[in-house]
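Morning, I've got a small favour to ask if you have a moment. I owe you a coffee for this, so here goes:
>
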Amino acid sequence: QAQLVESGGGVVQTGGSLRLSCLASGFTFSLYDMAWFRQAPGMERTFVASISWSSIRTDFADSVKGRFTISRDNAKNTLYLQMNSLRPEDTAVYYCATKYRRTTDYTTWGQGTQVTVSS
C-alpha cells in the first residue's frame, strides 16, 4: 500500500528557512512524479511545486519561485522541499503527493506537516 509521510514542519520567523521531507513507501518511487501542495486555514489546497520521476522537470507556483526548491533522492525514496525567505503567507499545512509518471491526477497524499511563519 502506497504511503507518504511528511516531516520537517515547524515555526520559523519571517525570512527563515525550513526543509520538508516526504518519505515514500509501498510503491516504486523512481517511477512516480512527486509534488508539494499546501492548504492555509479556510483556503483551498493549492499547488506549490512538482518534480518529475526522472528529476528532469520541476515546476513551481509563482508565489514560491526563487525561494523554494524541490528535489528527490530516489535511493532514499524521499522527496524534499527547501523553503527559503519564508513569509507569513507561506503559513499552511504542506502535503506531498504522488502520481504515476505521465499521468494527470495525484492519487496518494500524505497526512501533512504544519509550517508556521511568524512576523
Observations:
- The mean pLDDT is 97.
